[in-house]
């Protein structure tokens, strides 16, 4: 089986595309890229069809990550398709919990910093801020991704071939 992970933020142009790019690289590092599928979505459709924010693309590129996603709004079917649905902040989390229809779906919704040893709470929205905000987001995403890899290994490694 493949584990399917969906990263979710508001616009799907800054944080969740960054999370997707960082996490893909971490999967390669841990030789898990064939076992885990990654996607991202927004709780809003404001930026549907757009490439990621150029500031996120640039800051991620400086750290060796390639941000390639196209923005889309989360769909009800995602709550069944994906195994883990990873919210960037508390608003995203509340939105996701609000559209879940059963306990199985609710159990899939987690916060990105649940997997961090040093960060807590929100991955802060960098959209209206400056460069520092994007670097902060990437710091949090890098550190949390390592914890998420550990969690996936714990939960699913018996099912990987
Ligand atoms: P994201 O950032 O949720 O990390 O993609 C934002 C992108 C766009 C807007 C807000 C946050 N916006 O208001 O358009």
Explained architecture:
By secondary structure, this protein is an alpha/beta fold. The protein has a single domain (3-153), classed as Response regulator (Rossmann fold, 3-Layer(aba) Sandwich), CATH 3.40.50.2300. Helix content is 43%, strand content 13%. Helix 1 (15-29) packs across helix 6 and helix 2 packs across helix 6 (131-156). The termini are close together. The mean pLDDT is 97. 4-nitrophenyl phosphate is lined by residues 9-15, 46, 125, 127.
CATH topology: Rossmann fold
Number of H- or I-type helical stretches: 6
The strand order across the widest sheet is: 2-1-3-4
- For the CA atoms, what is the radius of gyration? 14 Å
Count up the domains.
1
What summary fits the major beta sheet?
4 strands, parallel
Low-confidence stretches: none
Beta-strand percentage range:
5-15%
Task: Please tell me the overall pLDDT.
Answer: 97
CATH class: Alpha Beta
Distance between the first and last residues' Cα: 8 Å
Helix proportion range:
40-55%
In a nutshell, what does this entry contain?
The chain has helices at 15-29, 54-62, 78-81, 90-99, 103-108, 131-156; strands at residues 3-9, 36-42, 84-87, 109-111. The chain is α/β, with parallel strands linked by helices. It binds 4-nitrophenyl phosphate.
Spell out the blueprint of helices and strands.
Blueprint: E1 3-9, H1 15-29, E2 36-42, H2 54-62, H3 78-81, E3 84-87, H4 90-99, H5 103-108, E4 109-111, H6 131-156
Parallel strand pairs: 1-2, 1-3, 3-4
